[in-house]
Amino acid sequence: MRRFSISALLKEAANGHQGWERQWRAPEPKKEYDVVIVGGGGHGLATAYYLATVHGITNVAVIEKGWIGGGNTGRNTTIIRSNYLFDESAALYNHAVNLWEGLSQELNYNVMFSQRGVLMLAHNHHDVISFKRHVYANRLNGVDNEWLTPEECKEYCPPLSISKDIRYPVLGGALQRRGGTARHDAVAWGYARGADARGVDIIQNCEVTGLQRHHDGSVKAVETTKGVIGTKRVGVVAAGHTGVVMSRFGLRMPVESVPLQALVSEPVKPVFPCVVMSNAVHAYISQSDKGELVIGAGTDQYVSYSQQGGIQIINHTLDAICELFPQFTRMRMLRSWGGIVDVTPDRSPILGKTPIPGLFVNCGWGTGGFKATPGSGHVFAHTLATGEPHKINEPFSLDRFRTGYLIDEAAAAAVAH
Amino acid sequence: MLLIRCPYCGERPEVEFHCGGEAHIARPDTPAEMTDADWASFLYYRTNPKGLHAERWVHNHGCGRWFNALRDTVTDAFVQTYEMGAPRPDAGNASSTATKAA
């Protein structure tokens, strides 16, 4: 792997930028790998990267049905935060934030991580009490979070309307200063480049169609559209299509796949300094470095793989955006899209073993997986390398739906994760 | 927005309806004999198919009645709506159709 540096940049500038090499290979699958990862999104590629760097396991294949980063990695609103209520979630998401902070340096790839702060707005008495509880719980867990008055919210985010005359006035907000955004595509590409340089094979346009097992039931090989690939361990990291992949392996899962929509405006000059989220009126918004307002809407209520959602969902979010930020009422929206997110009953992810020996799953991130990408990959790599969960992802087992040890962030975080 | 045919009221816009999740999941008759795994399966595990899916809907801003619907989760198109308690209309070839659509 040729490292990016100022000297490399200057040399290539003089050379007309003709000397840059491909960032990762396009290999044909080998007969056998130590680990096969199904799904080449951010989480899958991060898993492969940490398998290689932390655990020294480089005989790894990442098998991707389409192109890497082409699913939810390229469709999310790029928000990063870790202000989750419960101890288990705070540990998981804060692990990710810690890794985000050094990620560009580690990968030698600019993921444009920007800690511009995430402000969550409270609009009613319940919100205020709930968010203050979050602030205190977060601080006990070493997660930064602070309470702002409406005036302090306005100072932090000048476009915000704190008028008392709007339908849902702002009563305050919880601010996580370490939160922010990152360039989503760069995360996938950076991990892919780093993993490939260490010997991981990234196999695109290859769909997994089935699983072969030994007589004792353990994993023997995966069947793909490019042939049978032998392996002892398989990690399924297929996001919205986890249910589809697992059904091909003969397993049902406690997930349902629903569309989650987002949209961007025409690009404008820097006008929005942070990330603002409102669970109560359902809107979240930030501005990309390109200048587009990036707006997240809600999920549709039914199972779908259509990668599109109802217009009423977008309208609902834009109503809220226009009320909170009146200056955006005349902005034109450039495009909207949907991603298919796999939602669990307790709105927390599943990271760990399955009933099939050698088969592991990393799914159920629902509407909020992007922020966890480095942490998810890091602990899942540990799980695949050792066969046992890392202590951070131990509570997020598939078995919790049997034992009843649910991590019920649904009630705590409403819809916006 | 989807256009949904309520079996009692006819075609109405989606905002009048609420989706109640997967249909034909019967509450167990013998709860005392259920294991924890059985309960997990009943409460949490879902088919989540890519293709034809039977689900419950309620026309809550209309007649208020529940009904079942057969819908393609790839196109979101409603294939058929039918009354609660009626068997799944494509029961005979459900799996083959779903696989084909996937």
Automatic annotation (TrEMBL), chain A:
Broad enzyme group: oxidoreductase
TM helices/strands, residue ranges: none
GO terms, biological process: tetrahydrofolate metabolic process
Gene3D superfamilies: D-Amino Acid Oxidase, subunit A, domain 2, FAD/NAD(P)-binding domain
Pfam families given in the database record: DAO
EC numbers for this chain: 1.5.3.24
Stated name of the protein: Sarcosine oxidase subunit beta
Keyword terms of this UniProt record: Cytoplasm, FAD, Flavoprotein, FMN, Nucleotide-binding, Oxidoreductase
Organism field: Fulvimarina manganoxydans
GO CC list: cytoplasm
Compartments where found: Cytoplasm
Family the entry assigns: Belongs to the SoxB family.
Domain Rhodanese: 35-79
Cofactor dependence: FAD; FMN
Reaction(s) catalysed (UniProt annotation): sarcosine + O2 + H2O = formaldehyde + glycine + H2O2; sarcosine + (6S)-5,6,7,8-tetrahydrofolate + O2 = (6R)-5,10-methylene-5,6,7,8-tetrahydrofolate + glycine + H2O2
GO molecular function: nucleotide binding; sarcosine oxidase activity
TrEMBL record, chain B:
Top-level taxon in the UniProt lineage: Bacteria
Annotated GO MF terms: sarcosine oxidase activity
GO biological process: tetrahydrofolate metabolic process
NCBIfam families in UniProt: soxD (TIGR01374)
Name of this protein: Sarcosine oxidase subunit delta
